[in-house]
Amino acid sequence: MPVSVPHVRGLSPWRCESRELTVARAILPRSLMEAARVILHVDMDAFFASVEMRDDPRLQGRPVLVGGAGRRGVVAAASYEARKFGCRSAQPMVHALRLCPEAVVVAPRHATYVEVSRQVFDIFERFSPLVEGLSIDEAFLDVSGSERLLGTPRQIADAVRKAVREETALTCSVGIASVKFLAKIASGMNKPDGVTEIPAGKELEFLTPLPVGALWGAGPKTEERLAQRGIRTVGDLRRLGPSTLTSWFGAQGAHLYRLSEGIDERAVIPDREAKSISNEDTYAHDVVGVEALKRCLLSQATRVADRLVAEGLRARCVHLKIRDGRFVTETRQCTLPEAVDDHRAIYGAACRLLESVETEGRSFRLTGVGVAALEEASAPVQLGLFDAVGSRGRAPGGAAAAPLRKDSLQAVLSAVRERFGHQALFPGAAGSERRGGATGAISHTRGAPPAEQAENPGPDGPRKPGRRGDGGEGHR
Ligand code: DCP
Ligand code: MG
């Protein structure tokens, strides 16, 4: 039997683990830390709708649609009773009501969902220090090595579900696997209120019959191109081998091949370690073509680098977020060999990440560049070009705003922009995509960084709110 986990935060046996070990478990390759990881992906069932049904007994057992009731209203969540009629998230409400005229439409209560989300995440954190939120109602939990304390992976999953049910009167579904993307696929296989386990060693068996679209990063276009060649399942795709896939799809092909082999090296990065800085723009007109996209990335990488310098930080992890005209959002991330605060390094990484995105035939409404795995920039950086500037700690022109580090070209460039506006000393190629309508917000977040290396959301993915429950669009 699994040992029950203490409820008092701070007294959990997990808290005894040293910070170093926690971080090491999060960032070191699996081979160095432990033989097989055990990752749970927990996703609340019909989250908004279930909260409404819990809080209003009259709704129980009835088809419920949470969302805007007006002519242009959209379904945010559909209860499982409503799904039997074909109702889904992201459908126009009028369409959903045509499918199920007797459905009850309920206006969303976001503050309540955020509160329940907090409660649920507090429960998750009692089971592991490594909890990475993906959106308001789902998270990865790395419970590797906790068998002795908490029981088998299946028992841990059941204990999480029991705690959620008892403390919130809601149900969730859990996927168990050795890697993140498989755990996420698994949690969706037995919904609602179910558990799906992919035991270590059974990954290929599980993946082989799945449609290629199940792999994160295989968008509709890729799926179509593969289908034209008779490749429909993950097994078909694996048989092609890495070189054929790379020759067809470049870096994206190599990425898909690795997933088809069940390889996904990404660690569960706990939210508190995942402070990130990012900059994203939504464009008034969709951006088409790699060159135009790169100009957007250069602009964003520059603004992120400025922010890093202003805060005296460097970053080891770069992520790219991109959303197409159909609201399909994809994210990619990579780890650099050393921490950087230089816009060229961040831009270069973002461009490499872009190579693994299917850009052909798509137009994009949003791009974003972000950094995570931040460290203090205490050591001087390599460039000595501005040694002669002399005014250590002060920007040219006397600005004393950012904590400038000597010898840093990026620091000087950033300080000039800080003082004279963002267009000053802006990389030439970056300007032209910065058009009216772009939001250009720098966000500085704790929790829910782009956790997915690649994603392939269903029709309801793109609008799913982020962890902070601000109605924003979460990462899937
Ligand atoms: N959401 C939204 N708009 C979308 C998709 C989701 O506002 N297009 C909100 C409402 C959902 C919540 O996010 O309840 C969680 O999204 P999920 O994709 O996890 O969907 P549900 O929890 O509703 O159902 P499931 O049981 O399939 O997880
Ligand atoms: Mg859910």
Automatic annotation (TrEMBL):
Note down the stretches annotated as region Disordered. Answer: 426-476
User: Listed GO cellular component terms?
Assistant: cytosol
Instruction: Write out the residues that bind Mg(2+).
Output: 43, 137
UniProt subcellular location: Cytoplasm
Q: A GO term (biological process) for this protein?
A: DNA-templated DNA replication
- Its EC top class is transferase
- Job of this protein: Poorly processive, error-prone DNA polymerase involved in untargeted mutagenesis. Copies undamaged DNA at stalled replication forks, which arise in vivo from mismatched or misaligned primer ends. These misaligned primers can be extended by PolIV. Exhibits no 3'-5' exonuclease (proofreading) activity. May be involved in translesional synthesis, in conjunction with the beta clamp from PolIII.
Family, similarity comment: Belongs to the DNA polymerase type-Y family.
Under the subunit heading, UniProt states: Monomer.
Q: What is this protein called?
A: DNA polymerase IV
Q: Which organism is it from?
A: Chondromyces crocatus
